[in-house]
């Protein structure tokens, strides 16, 4: 061990270590992630039926302000001295930045992080939302100059992100409050976040899903997924081809039960039947089984695995300024063993030829190259680093380090593995590879993202391919080392690891192992019951199948509820693969926090056949199978229904009116097909732009009216898709939009009256107010028409 005197600087300002002792790090229920956004405190839960889940009672849903856009950092930037001599000494020694770039690097770290966001949703819809934003909003924004001469450029697309679907605003949150124009933009961001059109995400955090190269048939595991920004990208990728039930799946896992509910919230708008949230320690994530076509039980291996592991997070210094105070090299040293075990488990769960992305928001080689090198060494011949230099070509990155220096809190240097005996926290696996090893490891294929290169946070990412099964010997080693870890720490971590897999080449960990059950008291989810397995509930199934005309192709065996017996309130649907996982693993203790999309919910109507109504979140899955109760409408009819809430049927276009008149009362699907005219005029003003994607929404046909059964945020989203540009509320709050996205000053009194009626009454009476005269609307551009349409026209400038 070398004394600290050999180093560049020797300031020893006390730094508070914010890593829990290793024994606690291993116990999921006690682990407070270093990179956590916010941990919920209450263990009380209530049911959120729309997401098939229980949510912690104090969980903040939906609101952009609460969901992160407007959350002020707990510590004000001004209060924190952005200096840490240990940090500078350490990273100068590591040479993560060339000397000539050092001052740029430090300047970037000391400046606040810009605002970045991603336009979310499946590709077709995201591209349309982006077009609307660009045409109607971004293009009108100007550079803002403050009184002190500083200026902020309008938002710009992130140059390396495909299809201009991610954006960058130079102004950090504090700046936004300084200008009226920026406040307005902030309001826009909050509103769009609420509507699910955008998601705030650090630019560098968007990289790992891209490098995973996910295809719709892939089985994907996100090992440490909460709060879920990368999970959302992964789900979008398996649905990229527009299929509502692709062959693949995404399993998003997190060890923290409460953070699993963040995942529920984050992925809510995507509503994928191929998605499951689990709650396990990733380093002992259970081996999963499915049923093969021949009926035999088989082990599930994932095609893609994301190991975005817990880390010391010093790449987030620009955002989490308190790290300036607490940073010290032991943070990384404490995390290296857990990170290695998570990566190793990921490799075990990966199919041969599959890819695993290992990423951290730490700059530290002990958490990065050392973990990767450890796995390459241990599984030589089975794992290789992938060259990703041709992917995301406009993304600037630094190659992985080939050597690094191990240092403790007092800046003593550990020069060789023999020095480990001086400090039990330093492991031999942390040391850089030998010359020979460097030849074949190709550590330069790792990527480090430096803050001053693209005005981002710091980040590390490496892509590994499994080229052959991990050998039997190595699997045993894993089990033994996991067992050793469990005995050297107070937790019984991974003691259940069992190297005796039938295949003989992978470690099997069962969800029912005693270790996995240790946190069970925190896990109390409702059961998953498939309707076809409950003969006494056959009437529910038959009623639904008959009312909506589901043909023989409809996969009724995939429908489930969340209770045994009793009155079922909601019916969900999952993909065949998810069903197979539920069926084969739940009884063995797999902790599924959430899965399935709600497709039907119990209606209050007493009328025969109306007991279960369709739900908007499941319409993309159910509608293609429906042979009854589908109405094809025009975009302007759909806009009127979304806006007016319960328009009279006779105010809609003649064809739509006819279609509704042929329908009995009850829930129905209203569809406008891709390619049909939207409500937005073409540039030459002669026609209407074609709809970029099919829009489907759930309505309720009353006696004389149509009621829109779409949530308030989704309404604004669908309005955008049918061609109505985004409407921005005033930042000063004077002009507010009501639940239906309509200006409170302009919503018609009849609609307000109807909206105030209870659903039951509206369903039974159709919500009609007794008007007898036909109320035909004029086509957009015509001068005559009822008041609602006139209002819509004036809003959108037709
Ligand atoms: C860096 S964050 C993940 C961020 C996430 N991938 C995203 O993009 O939103 C690390 C996460 O790992 C979780 N975590 C910590 N220890 C874990 C373990 N042993 N197994 C699984 N998850 C763990 C934390 O709860 C935290 O949510």
TrEMBL record:
UniProt GO molecular function: tRNA (cytidine-5-)-methyltransferase activity; tRNA binding
Active-site residues, record numbering mapped to chain: 361
Coiled-coil stretches: none
Location(s) in or outside the cell: Nucleus
Region of interest: Disordered: 39-77, 472-519, 732-798
Residue ranges, compositional bias (Basic residues): 57-66
Polar residues bias spans: 788-798
Cross-referenced InterPro entries: MeTrfase_RsmB-F_NOP2_cat, MeTrfase_RsmB-F_NOP2_dom, Pre-PUA_NSUN2, PUA_NSUN2, RCMT, RCMT_NCL1, RsmB/NOL1/NOP2-like_CS, SAM-dependent_MTases_sf
Ranges of compositional bias, category Low complexity: 482-499, 742-751
Primary site of residence: nucleus
SUPFAM superfamilies hit by this protein: S-adenosyl-L-methionine-dependent methyltransferases (SSF53335)
Any one biological process term the GO annotation gives: tRNA methylation
Record keyword Nucleus present: yes
Biased composition (Basic and acidic residues): 67-77, 772-782
Gene Ontology CC annotations of this record: cytoplasm; nucleus
Keywords in alphabetical order: Methyltransferase, Nucleus, RNA-binding, S-adenosyl-L-methionine, Transferase, tRNA processing, tRNA-binding
Keyword Lipid metabolism part of the UniProt annotation: no
Location of the SAM-dependent MTase RsmB/NOP-type domain: 105-467
Residues engaged in binding S-adenosyl-L-methionine: 224-230, 254, 281, 308
Family: Belongs to the class I-like SAM-binding methyltransferase superfamily. RsmB/NOP family.
Record's protein name: SAM-dependent MTase RsmB/NOP-type domain-containing protein
